[in-house]
Fold this sequence. Notes:
Blueprint: H1 9-12, H2 14-45, H3 48-75, H4 78-100, H5 107-135, H6 141-167
Helix pairs in contact: 2-3, 2-4, 2-5, 2-6, 3-5, 4-5
Amino acid sequence: MRLLVDFSLFRRNTNFSLLFTGQFASFMGTMITSVALPYQIYSITHSTLMVGLLSLVQLAPLLFTALIGGVFADRYHRRLLLLISEAILTLGSLMLAWNAHLGHPSLLLIFLLAAFMSAFTGLHRPALDSIVQQIVAKKDFPTVSAVGTFKTSFAMIVGPAIGGLILSP
């Protein structure tokens, strides 16, 4: 039993290294946004109800697209699905940043972009999970699982902390 995560897979598999690095950056951005959007909604409306509504607006499209995301991942080119969804998520993030820098940010635009980005996250995840199995040897699956858990845990702790630092005066 190993006590430390084996990072040698990154040297042996360039495709996995590139995919992991991109997904790490993307997930960090998602975690930062998970702090920034509710904060922005509250600072605009001073309503905890609107903050809760944001979560509902993000959940509904995610549930719908997560159901069809697996079908898309099986039917269409996974790499292309990942590239398109990441590009759209990046564009959504840029639009959220642009909106935040306006004199009076649009609340409607925040809700629409949050829903739209959540929908693409539902399409993105099945393609990501299945493409990893195609680019990594079966013997490396335990390592992939370990570094994936490390990535998720790290980003879920550090991402919101960075988000808080960015929002602090």
